[in-house]
Amino acid sequence: MSAGAGTRSGLNNQRSIVNRLSAENVTLAYDQRVIAEKLSVEIPDNSFTVIVGPNACGKSTLLRALSRMLKPSQGRVLLDGEVIQSMPAKQVARTLGLLPQSSIAPDGITVADLVGRGRYPHQGLLRQWSTEDERVVQESMAQTGVAELADRYVDELSGGQRQRVWIAMALAQQTPLLLLDEPTTYLDIQHQIDVLDLCAELHEEQGRTLVAVLHDLNHAARYATHLIALRGGEVIAEGAPNDIVTSELVEEVFGLRCQVIDDPETGTPLVVPAARKARGRGAAEPEKVAAEAS
Amino acid sequence: MKTNRAVRSPGGLSVRLDVRTLVVVVLLLVAALAASVVLIGTGDFEIPAADVLRTLFGEGNASQEFIVNELRLPRVLVGLLVGASLGLGGALFQAISRNPLGSPDVLGLGQGATAGALTMIVLFSGGATQVTLGALMGGLVTGLGIYLLAWKQGVHGYRLVLVGIGMSAIVTAINGYLLTRADIVDAARAVVWMTGSLDGRDWNQVWPLLALCAVLVPLVLANGRGLRMMEMGDDISYALGVRVERVRMLLLVAAVLLTAAATAAAGPVSFVALTAPQLARRLTRSPGPNLLPSLCMGAALLVTADWISQRAFGADQLPVGVVTGVLGGVYLLWLLVTERKAGRI
């Protein structure tokens, strides 16, 4: 029995605990192209859940479904016990925030204005800018370390700063649940860690439930409290990284032979790919994996 | 630098105002109204501005009253309303397509309305009312066609513009065909209509346009906040609780109606819808769709263009569409050059 299967049944026993966000037997498809069938996922409350998997395994698609961007063709996504699609849009937006992979900063917008737009679900035609809005925007900018950039134009910022601004915008939404689609893509290593540290802080200090899609398995293993490994639209394993990340699992999910050692800094699993010669020819089809877009 | 101000009531209501935008709106309104007064005084029978104002407030003499209230006021009002509708319609289209080129001129809505009007003039020898209705129908059908062809899980900017350009080419061809079918009298009428003119507009054109604006403008402005979010992309606005498809559909229909109605009233006055939102945005220096400033800018532009055309070439010599076409064409070229320098196209 693989490590994955073991943890799977372990989790099913805990089903009696009702989590705020879950997907039940969802079939996810774009037009006719089916990405996942009968997929069930629970996001444990107060966790920092990270979804990992090879390119095109459906992890971003799952995130889109959880954030009601994509309507499942079958099954349902539940938020606080209600089908997410049938809830009022602003009510969902006050509970669950999403930072998509790519967003457009409007021409000539300042940092403070962009962060302020995160207050939209709390506003109305006659309640456009309360003192509470003002306070939350200041607070969100302070938390993400962009307060001193408040009056700068977003176009002038570096990639790392810009990502912090977008996270500040999502924070200003004040949602207990926050979903992030590959928040570290296009950032250099320092800014990747920077953003992940920020996420960990939001999770630990504010008790927000975070769900992120990450490409880097080692980052995932270090920061996640709950890991979901997907392949071909199926959950192969889920649980705490220390419990589930093994060389067998990595080979099963990513088709990569590797060693899993303890991270000398944190003691979390660290995946070290086997040397090219040790892997032998054709074992992992590395070119194919690398060429596919996510 | 920071011009955003919030006005709050004790009851927890609040309105956010951009001071600069507010100033721009007020100045544009003043400019539009001032130009209107001057325009009313302009013509074969010149009336000084002071007399125009006195007459408008009901204290002029009988001959002035007739000229101002029956002949020139409706024409100016149609100009203001057409300009406002085109400015607002253009701002909506540009915001929805996230592209300064996504304006009704480029998308072929004007040509579509023209096709409707030409059909009435050439094939049915219709009167003014039929021509207006035909233009309205033509605009709506074209708008629907563009929407259906560009629609695939939501309208996307470039697809909308490209489909619009294709549609525009087809409709232009139809218009050319209709013109060749026309006899000389109808053809002359058609060509004048096609240039866009405010000549001979009376109260019959004012009321329907005013009624439409009275319904659509508040509706559009109420949805403006959602549109402002949609600037950042569909996903993020959806995540913020904007019903993206619904808002977009509603605003597209409103934009098509505004443009088609304006075209039906004055002919395809070119380039106001393209330039007004861009000029307004440059004045307010504010991100967002700038709906109200665009509306005021459109009204001011059209009335001023009408005044220029009357001043420069004498009353009723030059249709206003020629002036807006020249001004707008120069502006479009400038826009293309600067966009190119900025590396956006």
UniProtKB/TrEMBL annotation, chain A:
Q: What name appears for this protein in its UniProt entry? A: ABC transporter ATP-binding protein
One GO cellular component assignment for this chain's record is: plasma membrane
Provide the ABC transporter domain boundaries.
21-257
Q: Which UniProt keywords apply?
A: ATP-binding, Cell membrane, Ion transport, Iron, Iron transport, Membrane, Nucleotide-binding, Transport
Give yes or no: UniProt keyword ATP-binding: yes
PROSITE patterns in the record: ABC_TRANSPORTER_1, ABC_TRANSPORTER_2
Which PANTHER family has this protein been placed in? IRON(3+)-HYDROXAMATE IMPORT ATP-BINDING PROTEIN FHUC (PTHR42771:SF2)
Where does it primarily localize? membrane
InterPro entries linked to this entry: AAA+_ATPase, ABC_transporter-like_ATP-bd, ABC_transporter-like_CS, P-loop_NTPase, Siderophore_ABC-ATPase
Is Metal-binding one of the keywords UniProt gives this record?
Answer: no
Membrane topology category: Peripheral membrane protein
Q: Which Pfam family name is an example for this entry?
A: ABC_tran
Q: Where in the cell is it found?
A: Cell membrane
TrEMBL record, chain B:
Question: What are the annotated GO cellular component locations?
Answer: plasma membrane
InterPro entries associated with the record: ABC_BtuC-like (IPR037294), ABC_transptr_permease_BtuC (IPR000522)
Keyword Transport part of the UniProt annotation? yes
Show the stretches that span the lipid bilayer.
21-41, 76-94, 106-125, 131-150, 157-179, 205-222, 250-271, 320-337
Membrane disposition:
Multi-pass membrane protein
Supply one GO BP term. siderophore-iron import into cell
- What GO MF annotations does this protein's record show? transmembrane transporter activity
Coiled-coil positions: none
Q: Which domain of life is it from?
A: Bacteria
Provide this UniProt record's keywords sorted from A to Z. Cell membrane, Membrane, Transmembrane, Transmembrane helix, Transport
Query: Where, subcellularly, is it found?
Result: Cell membrane
- Main localization of the protein? membrane
The family note in this entry says: Belongs to the binding-protein-dependent transport system permease family. FecCD subfamily.
| Name by which UniProt lists this protein | Iron chelate uptake ABC transporter family permease subunit
